[in-house]
Design a protein that fits this description.
It is built from 3 helices and 6 strands, in the order αααββββββ.
Length: 187
């Protein structure tokens, strides 16, 4: 016999001597109601709905952030515009003061005085259109809008804390003081 045949016969004998081991079926445990580490079945619809809800939430947050950004920019632009207007009005106040002084210095009613008066009224109307308002000096002293440069004794006509004289008019524009009124206050 050849070597190959001998080897094959020996292998068959060895296999015969060994008894075949029956294969066991894997045991399946029935659920006992306790949560186990088993992975739940994936539901593609539920996953898609969760993803859609996540995207919707993200989009809503972005929309809210953008709305806040837009509102901040609108507010900042309005503040800048108001500040520019206040600066322009403040630069024109000396001209307004000089026109008022020119009218006060001219004694007789000449065409020159009438011309200055017309220019003054036109200037006041234009500046009022931009939001310029004179500070009220007929009220008790308010340090927010009045600048006390002198004091005097209080009397029956002027009780303590009232304005006696106005040396320079004060003005506000768009809710802020441009120039405080220079006044004399009774103490």
């Amino acid at each position: 016999m050849t070597k190959k045949k001998k080897a094959a016969e020996e292998a068959e004998e060895i296999l015969k001597e060994q008894e075949p081991v029956p294969q066991e079926e894997p045991e399946t445990e029935e659920p006992t109601g306790e949560s186990e580490a088993a992975e739940p079945e994936r539901d593609p619809i539920a996953e898609a709905e969760a993803k859609a809800a996540e995207y919707l939430s993200h989009a809503q947050r972005l929309q809210a952030e953008f709305d806040n950004y837009r509102k901040r920019n609108v507010s900042a632009m309005a503040d800048s515009r108001d500040e520019g207007t206040r600066q322009a009005l403040a630069a024109m106040l000396p001209v307004l003061d000089n026109l008022e002084r020119a009218l006060a210095a001219e004694a007789e009613d000449t065409p020159f005085k009438q011309g200055v008066d017309m220019i003054l009224r036109q200037m006041q109307d234009a500046m009022a259109g931009l939001g310029l308002e004179a500070v009220d000096t007929g009220i008790p002293f308010d340090p927010n809008v009045h600048h006390a440069v002198m004091q005097c004794e209080a009397d029956d006509e002027h009780p303590a804390g009232t304005i006696v004289n106005v040396f320079q008019k004060g003005y506000t524009a768009r809710g802020r003081v441009i120039r405080a009124a220079m006044v004399q206050v009774a103490q």
